[in-house]
Design a protein that fits this description.
The protein is of the alpha+beta class. The chain is built from 2 helices and 5 strands. α1 crosses α2.
Amino acid sequence: MGNYKEDLLGALRRHSLEAVCLGGGYYLRLGGALLAKAAFTHSGGYADGLRLTVINRSSGPVDSVTIHFWELPKTVENGSHSHEDDAFLRVQRPMPDMNALTEKALEYLELFREPGGSQAASM
């Protein structure tokens, strides 16, 4: 799971130069008094989604949504697996597509950006 954080931060920075990682969350300026916080959600010890919270600096949380990894488009991996390699039952948790996750997140956050603002998302 260590790569999730770096991959998401890199994808966010490609779309918004003001993405900052503090603590366990990522913060983005939306314009005016609004900020967005993004943090991974976990289930069974594994990251399973991204929770986005829009925050007004003076009054607190405005809205939030969770984008689950199962909502993202699936990528197909072509590889050969032999039964000898599967000595033990292994559960594969594929890496989510961080670009697709970022696009979904920015699509939601675009609803809260000020019209004509200088920080419009480039999708």
